[in-house]
Design brief:
By secondary structure, the protein is α/β, with parallel strands linked by helices. Helices cover about 35% and strands about 20% of the residues. It has five helices and six strands. The protein has helices at about 20, 55-65, 85-100, 115-135, 155-165, and strands at about 40-45, 70-80, 100-110, 140-145, 180-185, 185-190. α3 links the parallel β2 and β3.
């Protein structure tokens, strides 16, 4: 989970402009008396993605630390993986909880290869279930950050949230990120810089 760990190839991320995003970390206004409400809900549906988990989860955890764990929740639905994805995400539960991150983790046997559009909608709804079931614990102006198996940097996550706020948008969307560039036998992480 440490961005400084160089024991395996990973996408290198720039340091974000903290001043640009600092307002995002302000606590949500309290409602119903003294109930602290969360402002950000990270939702992921993941399958067969051990190769991307260090960068993906590392960037999410970095973003949550920047935004304030008290402002965030993370919901991950894993489906039918045989490459260790389920085991890694399951083992993260204790570490994330120890640093104050509210983490919801479940597995699903929904197969998007059958009735693809309906299955993907069901998977996304499954990732949103903790938000729906506990809506009073979240701000009415909650920002949902949906991510999948992509190589993304903390700055990219913060920029998406910033653009949603800055543009008063209902939805903002990024380009897809992945490890795609290979030279000989060595895979080189690559990052699409379009916004």
């Amino acid at each position: 989970m440490s961005p400084q760990d160089q024991s395996f190839p990973r996408l290198e991320c720039p340091a974000p402009d903290a001043l640009r995003y600092e307002y995002l970390a302000e606590p949500a206004p309290k409602s119903n008396g003294e109930i602290e409400q969360k402002k950000y809900f990270f939702a992921l549906d993941l399958h067969q993605c051990t190769h991307i988990l260090p960068r993906l989860m590392g960037s999410i955890v970095e973003a949550i630390h920047f935004l304030g764990p008290e402002n965030c929740a993370l919901s991950v639905v894993e489906g039918r993986s045989t490459d260790g994805t389920f085991e890694i995400l399951s083992l993260l539960q204790q570490n994330l909880t120890n640093v104050g991150i509210e983490y919801y983790f479940e597995s699903s046997d929904i197969n998007p290869n059958q009735s693809r559009i309906q299955a993907l909608a069901d998977l996304r709804n499954h990732a949103l279930k903790p938000l729906r079931d506990n809506f009073d614990r979240f701000s009415q102006d909650i920002t949902v950050i949906f991510l999948n198996d992509v190589a993304i940097c903390m700055e990219d996550i913060l920029e998406l949230i910033h653009q949603r706020m800055f543009q008063e948008a209902v939805m903002t969307c990024a380009m897809d990120w992945t490890y795609v560039c290979c030279f000989g036998d060595t895979a080189t992480p690559s990052r699409n810089t379009f916004r």
